[in-house]
Amino acid sequence: MKINFSSFRSDQFSFAKDPVLILEHFWSAxxxxxxxxxxxxxxxxxxxxxxxxxKAFQNCGNWLKAEIAPAEGTRFIxxxxxxxxxxxxxxxxxITGRHINxxxxxxGVGDCLSTHDDTDDAYTYAQGRTPPTRRLALAxxxxxEWQPDWGGELIIYKENAGKKGKKNLEVVQCxxxxxxxxxxFAVPQFHxxxxxxxxxxxxxxxxxxxxxMTEH
Length: 216
Hints:
By secondary structure, the protein is α+β, with helices and mostly antiparallel strands. Helices cover 19% and strands 34% of the residues. It has helices at 29-40, 51-56, 70-80, 83-89, 122-126, and strands at 2-4, 20-24, 45-46, 64-67, 97-107, 113-116, 133-141, 154-161, 167-175, 182-186, 191-193, 205-215. The strands form two sheets. It has an eight-stranded mixed β-sheet with strand order 1-2-10-7-12-5-4-3, covered by helices on one side. A hairpin with a 5-residue loop joins strand 8 (154-161) and strand 9 (167-175). It is globular, with a radius of gyration of 17 Å.
């Protein structure tokens, strides 16, 4: 479903029936500015400084990642914790714990994210931890401006059976990183982030992305 947030009825939406939700104009201009200011005060880590992640996402440029401060994190969760999200998360049996993991991301020219389905968490295992199960993935955008030919689209695929048992991927959603928009989709689902084009110049694709997760 793709809809303007002002027209969205969360109590009438189900991720079990429609695994992809795109809400346009989710964040106000003031909210976007607040998070951009917080990003400006954050400590960023480049992809090349995260060896397990860089190994999992080779040839993806050198995008940046930063932690969200507690105050902004609380505000963020209060806004994105929609009733349809809570309903879907509680639909899984034998839950012993609930987790979230969201971070700031900055993509510049040449940065991208290769195709994956959010189930391979080798870099978490590399840190000696067993990760919880990712249930819903989220990406939302805070830059001031983004033009169509700047790239950075979120592509979502579906799997189709091919010849000799090989699975083929078909594009089902091409989600532009429009300022203030929000995308949430069920995991697993193959997806990628298109490379930011040189036409973007010094503009950065600023986002918060991560997961709602359960432990069993």
